[in-house]
Amino acid sequence: MEPLTQQQSGEVRAVDGRTPGRRGRATRDRLLSCTAELLERSSYRDLTVIDIARCASCSPATFYQYFADVEGAVLVLAQEMASNGKSLIALIKGSDWKGKAGPRTAAAIADEFLALWERHRAILRVVDLATAEGDLRFQNARTHLLNEITIGLRDVVEDQRSSGGLPKDTDSMAQAATLVSMLAHVAQHAYGFEFWGIRMEDMRRSLARLLYTGVTGKKI
Q: What is the set of domains in the chain, with CATH numbers?
């Protein structure tokens, strides 16, 4: 069987263009699930093909039918993770920022962002490491995730600026990027804040307040 690649459309095909059957997809999904599971409790650098194959109850040869190496499997997980921000984008675009609904919207977005980061913390740890080392493939996955969220928030910020809620000289993209960077930094260092004695609930409340003010120009 030829190695499989994931096309930009999300459809999995063999190098020669063939589409794997149900069993092939199930095996591939099991290998990805095991990769994600093992990343939760071991270092990316220590993870081996043998570990993943053993977890998936298959042989290393089977793994290589689907992925060139461990990095290839992790990259697919990173790409899938990047596409999981759609629910957050829908929340940003579809929520009400007016009146008493505004603070609730900000709190909901902060909660969803933190939850998204927590669900994919192990993968994001690898993505951040590979990005810092200059691997553009992982950098693109991270950029895709955050850029989609930033664009969604930019549109909301622009609406607020146009209606007079924010100063006219506010650059909507810069404002949105700053707010998303804030969310990402807090989410990434959540455990560190707790180690310093800062309760996550207090961080969440501060995030929501800053997000609300940054989007609307108003204070809670």
A: 4-68 (1.10.10.60), 81-216 (1.10.357)
